[in-house]
Amino acid sequence: MWGPGTWPVSLGSGDIGLRPIRLSDRAEWMALRARNAEWLAPWEASNPQPGGSLPTFRQMVRSLNQQAREASALPFVITLADPHSSRPPIVGQLTVSSIIWGSALMATLGYWVDHEHAGRGIAPTAVALATDHCFFSLGLHRMEINIRPENGPSLRVVEKLGFRYEGLRPRYLHIAGQWADHESFALTAEEVPEGLTARWLASRA
């Protein structure tokens, strides 16, 4: 159910947090993306239209916020607590998109994390937090994640969290200038009655 307490919302586990992306994040977000340009380039969404370009930061945030108002997306940044800063720095981005209500109750999730923080459990924790919010606060039934077969770090995230492999989607999204195959993974609420975050943290312990 979409309403008070479901969006805008901030989520967290330990030092890792999710909060809504804001226009005021522009300088920090742009600097982070610049540092990760080479790291993210092979997985970067591109515009299939001839001569088409990606939206600016301002256009992206306004579009995502409009989708959030329409109850079709949850646009988060991923933060990591810093003992030397009162404002946790941004270390990545996570967006729940294509939310479908009615008889489907499903959504798609995508994410990226700063290469200097990869492999530290940040992405799996963020995905688990967002998935639990969708299942237990919004009442969604299914979460789907689509990943390039060559993207080893992202494949390890869904493997750690126990997402089911559902098959290959040929030429699914336009990535880095060409239509690219993706492998599809999914999880339903019945598969994690105890919560995905609790299961993930228990597996780490």
Automatic annotation (TrEMBL):
One Gene Ontology term, aspect cellular component: cytoplasm
GO molecular function, one term: protein-N-terminal-alanine acetyltransferase activity
Xref: Pfam families: Acetyltransf_3
Keyword annotations of the record: Acyltransferase, Transferase
Xref: InterPro entries: Acyl_CoA_acyltransferase (IPR016181), GNAT_dom (IPR000182), N-acetyltransferase (IPR051531)
Keyword Manganese assigned: no
SUPFAM superfamilies xref list: Acyl-CoA N-acyltransferases (Nat) (SSF55729)
Domain N-acetyltransferase: 16-190
Source species, domain of life: Bacteria
Family: Belongs to the acetyltransferase family. RimJ subfamily.
Protein name (database record): GNAT family acetyltransferase
